[in-house]
């Protein structure tokens, strides 16, 4: 049997309803969760580690990197790693680990949308499915995977799309890369990870700004003046912004603050196809870096990792050229 390490970080999978406040709070450590899923050790030799018991909005970039370093070490010893995580920020931690951890062994993130006090707790099914996949040869060399609701997604593409549905995790551009049926993972296509950033530290001071009609430069200038080290802008459409924001763009780039442009559209990549003031071409001419098809929160994670590696804008541009499409 394979040796699988489950690292518990918290999230709804570890929560119970507190009757006094009538709301869910973290209550269970890893062993408590495994006690609710008695058959999981028929699949593999399970080892368990409590990293934290926090709801996922409490996780910080520094904690994410600490987790990534731990996974890199443990992946040398175990055949596969499963990480349980709150679903709210699961996509961010999973992507940071995907970017910064270079193991060929399966690393699977999972969680739950319902707490164990609710009817239909999905934690058991998700955890069993994740362990099955972590123990499978076919999940090797695929980077970090996210498994929820029987679907297998790559960490770089998956996002939480619904606040309460069990069917919330979606890879909106090309769908899940596989699924688990009858206790076996299947992959639709041969997919290999294309991004890696070698970092020992992370720069957490990165701002994320969403564009809307009529916005001006003040928010960008405020971020720069408050010491931000990088900015991700969720532009409109294929990567265009209101012209009133342009003085802020120039202000940041003149101070060597990288600006990554992504789209507030839920699918598709950004491009420099528009040449008008504030269009993608105008922005790249000013030194803005295109962020591919990443959403804002993932582009921010990538910029935090990139800035942990280099401050050089040309190097950061090269890092953002590593994409999931050829
Ligand atoms: N708010 C919870 C968290 O992210 C939700 C969840 O775990 O799904 O920790």
UniProtKB/TrEMBL annotation:
Residue limits of the L-asparaginase N-terminal domain? 3-188
> Which parts form a coiled-coil structure per UniProt?
none
Q: Which GO terms describe its biological process?
A: asparagine metabolic process
Keywords from the named record: Hydrolase
CDD domains xrefs = L-asparaginase_II (cd08964)
Q: What GO MF annotations does this protein's record show?
A: asparaginase activity
Which residues are listed for substrate binding in this entry?
56, 87-88
Cite the PROSITE patterns for this sequence. Answer: ASN_GLN_ASE_1 (PS00144), ASN_GLN_ASE_3 (PS51732)
- Could you name the domain of life of the organism this protein comes from? Bacteria
Question: Which residues are catalytic?
Answer: 12
Domain Asparaginase/glutaminase C-terminal: start-end pairs = 206-320
> One Pfam family, short name please?
Asparaginase
Is the keyword Hydrolase assigned to this protein? yes
Q: Does the keyword DNA repair apply?
A: no
Query: Which InterPro entries would you find in this protein's record?
Result: AsnASE_II (IPR004550), Asp/glu_Ase-like_sf (IPR036152), Asparaginase/glutaminase-like (IPR006034), Asparaginase/glutaminase_AS1 (IPR020827), Asparaginase_C (IPR040919), L-asparaginase_C (IPR027473), L-asparaginase_N (IPR027474), L-asparaginase_N_sf (IPR037152)
Q: What class of enzyme is it?
A: hydrolase
Can you tell me which family this protein belongs to? Belongs to the asparaginase 1 family.
Q: What is this protein's record name?
A: asparaginase
Q: Which species? A: Clostridium pasteurianum DSM 525 = ATCC 6013
Q: What is the lineage of its organism?
A: Bacteria, Bacillati, Bacillota, Clostridia, Eubacteriales
- Source gene? ansA
């Amino acid at each position: 049997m394979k040796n699988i390490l489950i690292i518990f970080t918290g999230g709804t999978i570890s929560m119970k309803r507190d009757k006094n406040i009538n709301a869910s709070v973290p209550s269970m450590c890893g062993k408590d969760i495994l006690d609710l899923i008695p058959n999981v050790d028929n699949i593999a030799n399970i080892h368990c580690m409590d990293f934290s018991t926090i709801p996922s909005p409490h996780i910080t970039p520094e904690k994410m990197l600490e987790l990534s370093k731990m996974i890199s070490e443990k992946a040398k010893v175990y055949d596969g790693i499963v990480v349980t995580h709150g679903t709210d920020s699961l996509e961010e931690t999973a992507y940071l680990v995907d970017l910064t951890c270079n193991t060929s062994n399966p690393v699977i993130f999972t969680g739950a949308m319902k707490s164990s006090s609710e009817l239909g707790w999905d934690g058991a099914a998700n955890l069993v499915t994740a362990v099955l996949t972590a123990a499978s040869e076919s999940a090797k060399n695929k980077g970090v995977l996210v498994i929820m609701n029987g679907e297998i997604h790559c960490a770089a593409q998956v996002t939480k799309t619904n606040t309460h549905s069990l069917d919330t995790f979606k890879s909106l551009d090309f769908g899940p890369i596989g699924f688990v049926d009858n206790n076996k993972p299947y992959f639709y296509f041969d997919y290999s990870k294309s991004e890696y950033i070698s970092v020992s530290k992370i720069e957490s001071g990165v701002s994320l700004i969403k564009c809307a009609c009529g916005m001006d430069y003040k928010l960008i200038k405020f971020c720069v003046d408050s010491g931000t080290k990088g900015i991700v802008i969720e532009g409109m459409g294929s990567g265009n912004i209101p012209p009133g924001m342009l003085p802020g763009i120039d202000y940041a780039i003149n101070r060597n603050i990288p600006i990554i442009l992504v789209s507030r559209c839920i699918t598709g990549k950004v491009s420099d196809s528009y040449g008008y003031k504030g269009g993608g071409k105008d922005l790249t001419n000013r030194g803005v870096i295109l962020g591919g098809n990443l959403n804002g929160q993932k582009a921010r994670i990538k910029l935090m990792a990139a800035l942990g590696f280099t401050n050089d804008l040309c190097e950061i541009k090269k890092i953002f050229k590593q994409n999931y499409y050829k």
